[in-house]
Structures
1.
Amino acid sequence: MPSLMETIPAENRMMLLRGPLDESPLGFFLTNERGGLEYVSREAARIIGFESSEEAREYSLHDIEPAIDCGLVEGFSDVLKGHNFQKTEHICTNRQGHFAVLNIFCSPYHDTDDRITGMFGIIQDVTESYHEKTRLEEAHYVLSIISQISAALSSKAELDEVLRMILIGVTAYQGLGFNRAFLFLADEEQNCLEGKMAIGPGSPEEAHEVWSRLAGKHKTLLELLNDYRTNEKAINNNISSLIADWRIPLDKPSIFKRALDNAEGLKISSAEDLKPESIEILNRLNTDKLAMAPIISKGRKLGLIAADNKITGRDITDSTVALLQTLANTSAVAIERSQLYDNILERADELEKINRRLEESQEQIVRAEKMSVIGELTSSIAHELRNPLMVIGGFANMMLSTGDGGENAEYLNIILSETQRAESVLHQVLDFSRASRTRSRAIEFNPLVVKAYNNFLSRLKFKQKKPKLSLSGNDIKVWGNPDQLQHVLYQFIRLTVEDMTEECNIQISTGLNGNMVRLTIGFEGDDEARRKVVKTLSQIFGSSTGTQKLSMLVAGETIRYHGGNYGVEGSAENLPRLYLELPQIKGGYDG
Amino acid sequence: MDNRVLVVDDEEHVRKLYMNALSRKGYEVDTAADGEEALTIIKQRDINAVILDIELEEESGLELLKRFKSVRPELPIILNTAYSVYMSDFKTWVADAYIVKSSDMQPLIDKLDELMGIPQE
């Protein structure tokens, strides 16, 4: 038994369905065997670009195919042979010239005798969802780029590495795809931007060579970023020299200042209407189209990324500028973190130095305490020795002076001279011991030398030549026990100079040698003077065991205790020169 | 003759040395090992000068100096010690001279001659 529908003639069936189909969000249409449109629902008419369903019935598939351009005419032939025709997300422009994305499904239309008498089509407008999908894909693309660059940046702390990665992200084909990128960092003190780094090819030939090589490697952006060291040579070139040492003042209007002040990306498409400062920027970068994105973190202007398509000439779109700005925002965090990292390293370095100084101070305190104990001990021993020495020497002296020595006079003389020598040593030790009781402090070096020099002059006899004294013009200070250092300088001058005042012209001078304060004693004279100087210095610094040597040992130990050193310098042409060095302390040092 | 000298030192050998050396120079020498003995001698004998050690066992030479001067303000006193540090102690300024002990006794003798008005050799 035939169904109700089958009892209705085919040409009338659509008339029955017309009401429900016109209300549907899908579009429907029916053609006859020749392709003429028999029925077009309201939605189908809108999608194809007809004013109304009625208007559509005056046309055929051949009329709408040029606009929709989906192969419907060829498909119609197949449908008449019993096949289906389908197109998904077909992008076209409808008869009204509107962009449209369509899903189309067509199947044969049968009459009651099951003959194919036309084509029944369903047409769906998916333009909105297509746009949505495109937007999602773009967002995914952007997120993917930013995510990969962020991932790469998060593993780097060195500022140079961070900057290089940012620029690779901007220029890599897998990234933002700009031809060239320039990075400037803000100098807050000087209120200017300073050119730091740039990458990109310098010429079309170079671009071809580099881009072909990189394309052949088929790397993801993340791989490219992580391999930046191996690509460094391939990507880098002297384009950085374009901006090296370039300082752009931020107190004059320019495109860079505008981007920073507005805190948003900026695109320049021509140099027209630009101020001279901005034109100078474009000229220096040798471009007329430029995208810029300020790097700002928590309101602090850190720098700016500029990029262009100098080689390909491709237009810079607003969306690319927006993407560049997104990258700049991500970079801001990395740059700030890197700068903080540098600060931490600097602080750590300072702390280490302070620690080292503290350790040295502690060592000095320990040494000072030891020296103090030794000083007390030696002082006590020295005093105990003085009485017996006086008694021994006194009796020897008395016997000699009264002639009681007889044939032992020679031995008495030996006893007396050795006693006097021992007393002289005691004198040195007691002087040093007394000096060690004074507290250490910062001392002006020149007055200390002048005092020692004047003390020395008072010892000179009338005929002896005075050494010349030349003081450094600098305000030089040392740290130490003033009495001890005074004693040391005096001993140093006395021991080395006293015996040579007749043969040599002597020059005593003060100055700086790096971080050391230096006292130099220079000699001038003939060969006889040279012999004398060498002999005297050998006695003092050589392996002899005389009183002079002992005094120099005490003086030397004191110099070393104060962190200094002393010695002899010489050359074949000049006479030997003595020097004594102590660490310089600078203003503000409180010990 | 006004050339009687008192040597105050707690070390016997020092006293003996001074006794011999000064006697040979023509001085009459008395010696004392501590303050009490020295004060007794000063009160009993006509002492013209004192050579006084500072680091004594029982009583500081500086205390003794004060006591000697309170008894005989005009008595010349030479402080004679192994320590040069006392030179800056104002208590020593009351003394007429300060000489550091040495095997060379000439400076001491010179000072003694000067204080007692004896012409130097």
2.
Amino acid sequence: MTATALDDPVLEELRQILGGDHVLTSRTSRFNRTRVPAPFPVHRWSEYLPDVAVLPTSAEQIAEVVKLANRLRIPIVARAGGTGLADGAVPLRGGIVVDVKLMNRILDIDLVDRTVTVQPGINMLKLNEELKKHGVFYPDDPASYPCSLVGGRIGTSGWSLIGGRYGHTRDLVISMQLVLPTGDIIEVGDGGGRKIRKSSTGFQLKHLFMGHQGTLGICTEATLELVPRAEAEFAAFFGYPDFETAYRSTGALTKSGLATLAGVVLFDEQKVDYLRRDDEAYIPQPPELRSVIATAMYGTLDEVKPAARRLMRIARETGGDYLGDEVSQGDWASRHDRYATPLHGRLRDGTVVPMCWHCEDAAIVYSALPDVRREWHAIAERYIEGYGIFDDWGMFFYTNGPYKPWGDYLVEIDIGIWEQRLDDETWAAWVECKREIAEVSLRYGGSITACHGATRAGDVELVPLEMGGGFEVMKQIKRALDPNNIMNPGKYLLDQAYEDG
Amino acid sequence: MNGFRLQAERPPEPQPVKDGVVMRLEHIYEVDPAAMTVFEQQDLPVWDTLRIVASRWDHLAWMHDHFADRVISAEELEEDGAT
């Protein structure tokens, strides 16, 4: 249905819409807008190249590009930071990559009604540098905080490290403007007001366009929540003799009822072993330290201090040894910027090799965490033994619920992959490994993905199973909004929406 | 001839700390170069290593300041009263 090659008249029409400097056809411009940090079949990179990359500066330009794409049946893939981990921004059928990085302005700061309106190409760290002057903060804090962009956070329905206190992307985006796959520009929120947080008018359309992986439109503006800048931060890391003790302590800490508790992160034994390789906070730790919990609190001084005392007491009463202020504060600060992790790959004999980073992100309830952990490590071990280019970097378990640290967890196993050694056989093995891991998540009543999305091979085949009858609804919505299947086609198996003609 | 000479900035020989980890400069851990046969260690002068380490501490301090006005330590809690 969609074309995959662009000829000169099409490129000329794009230049008329955007200006010549904002239409990029060079190999480097296209190669650099193909993959994302997730594991990628580098030996087949050229199969995923877009035909052209465009850099719009307005919603109207994007709307004209989308209308052109509809007319000529050209695929469109939106790309913000390109830091996602589920291939949402990877073109499957060439076409036009709409790169929103030039749309990076702050449009309005409203300190009375506590909102900030931005374009999708702005980075949260840069946004907060500006907001600091006004004593407010936008608390959307992923591992990619210094490099991801607001548009991508919306496209993936992102998760925040401090979401247990402040909520996640879907809770922090009040409303947005977007270009539909037809080229129409609409605004969606809770009801119709741009700054209304809670409404019961009409359908909850904002949530439909949260986490769609660019299959339903392109965000061109977003109105975001502003919270008071925290007076105080308290971070405390605790060591445990084994995972089971740390797991029970996690349960106690997350159910403590402390409102300023922003996040709890449980590190399993394999994660601590991995960190002992070359992380200065863990190399000198005694061998008896096998598992770790990281905690952080934010709020006013009057709230945080008494809460911190109670937190310390709970951790100690449940078997935790405080690791000290230097480790706690230093390692917590490093949590906001985790994309350097791929430098830690090892083969079984200890040889250092450059590995890319697979970051699993299932959502699993507390009661199932030990079993999921056991099964995932067993899967990783089989593939490491079988293929020699994988590495188990251990697991994290992060509080996942918005505004509450209990209930379900973002469960992460990090697997290193020696990408330079990938070929068709090892890539197929990786996809199978990924599928086995995702199947475990579903078997324990979880979700394949807490925040990255499930658009990749190895995940996407299981989406109909996870969604059940909801997958039919997804197809109907896709067909209704994107009649020509031009918006990120091929993602989420949504081609099936068009198979009956 | 005056000026910078890389040879004059070479770090001391590495001392083993544990499997896979060595130390040349005090409190600065490095991956054992013997394990870096595929991915070789860069040849850095001492001043550059110290610059990178200092930058890392600056970055962490900056991150704290970015997220909150002040950082409370457990030591401070103990000074205020029993934890």
3.
Amino acid sequence: MTAKILSPAMSKAPPSNWKNWIGVIPFFLFAILFLFLPSFRLFAGSFINSEGHFTLENLLELFTQPYILNSYWLSIRISAVTALGGGIFGFLLAYSVTVGGLPRALRPALITFSGVASNFAGVPLAFAFVATLGRTGFVTALLKNLFHLNLYDSGFSLYSFVGLSLTYMYFQFPLMVLIMAPALDGLRREWREAAENLGATTMQYWFHIAMPILLPSLLGAMILLFGNAFGAYATAYALTGGALPIITIQIGAQIRGDVLHNPGLGYAMAMGMVIIMAVSLAGYSLLQRKTERWLK
Amino acid sequence: MNDSKQTRKFPFWSWFWFIIGVLYFILPLYATLDFSLRMERGVLSFKAYERAFSDPEFLRTFGYSVILALVTIIVSILITVPTAYWIRLRLPEARRIVEFITLLPFVIPAIILVFGMIYVYSSPLKFPFTNITLMQPLTTFTFGTDILIVGGYMVLGLPYMYRSVDTGMRTVDVRTLTEAAQSLGANWFTIISSVILPNLRTALLSGALLTFAIVVGEVILASFLGVPTFGPYLFLLGQHRAYEPAALTFTTFLLTWAAMGIIQLVTGGQGQTAGAH
């Protein structure tokens, strides 16, 4: 199959300008088969009712069925909380190794570790957190032995909103470090010197010069973190087994068996997710472009 | 003067946040390692690792994942390299659209991708306007799901693979290389295989390792398409075992470390990040 797809790139092309497009046919064929066709079918399917006729009912139902609305809302809350928490914490970490005055050698170490941690997700991540903060986890036991603090008696559970958020943070804040470290590097020394020569305090420098430059990048990165958490499925499923009905878990249940008793509604649910992801990615790239003007 | 005061002062808050960050990184890993070594009561041992690695099911599923990863990497390279090359040389007007497509996997999470693939490929391929079946649904036979999962993995790895290849081509100036090879009489096949590909070693290696890291632990596509890979195996093992999953989790982490570490080494710190959450 591969050989067949690739052959046009090598074969002779007719002598006109559009012949150059033949070279990218394999790529477009791949994109159509595995990217456009699946998403287009979901899109089209969300306008079809159980009898096979055109309808807008499914899209309206997204906003009226509490079961679906709650899932979206839970996903949005968990993504927002981990984007904000991971964003702030990741920014502080990136700050500490770039302009924060820590030894230079720590920077590459932190960047490499962030690269690993932002890729360490899904089932292994869930298992690692069970070993850490589960009922008999390492930290749970440590707190009990050292401070006589029983986490699970005080209302904490790893298999709850807070627990899942803490787990998501493990891949959220490293991603923030990876995005913000280059942006913080872009802050030029001359800007700070100029500000100080004019008598600005450190606070004034940060609030009037550094922050306005970094803000679009900071916001953009947090929006990206939001999307990163919003699309997550495996971590939540492995950790809570579906007890926390975030939107990806509901879609998973719909794929396994038509739990909504309306395939079209399932497709509409998926499309709603794609729209939220698209808006967040567009927001990210818009804000990123704004920052690039300064940080070149 | 302010600056000199700044540098002499001990950066307390920087250290504070750094140490919290390191603890957040290390604690779950330490906890997993610690737990995985306690299979035998009272002593630390590698028994969980021995048990986990000697399970024939582990070998089978892990081998399957590695093979899928290799096929994904090879086919991805065969598609992205000629495309990026062609765009640079002959078709700059396609750059925007192709770059847009390579970003789409960020908008379409794996769970949606597999939903759509099952929807499209679970019905048989019919000859247009007739009832003659050309092909059984891809989701119904092993080779079919293998094709689907490799296609899906290529989509998940596409942003990283394409970006590393494209960056690689920018740094080695493929146009000059191509013109030099052409003036020496090389044909297209020779140019791509003996001039372009060797010069893209670093870029290809980092794209390949990222794809490897994504594919080996992947669970969403595999479990919904019913492909017996390592991800679903680890998940199921976690349902009825305690120590072996911890051992395999720690091993997975070391593998990710190795992949990212090599990328850092070969690219000199221009690390990338992927996501298969």
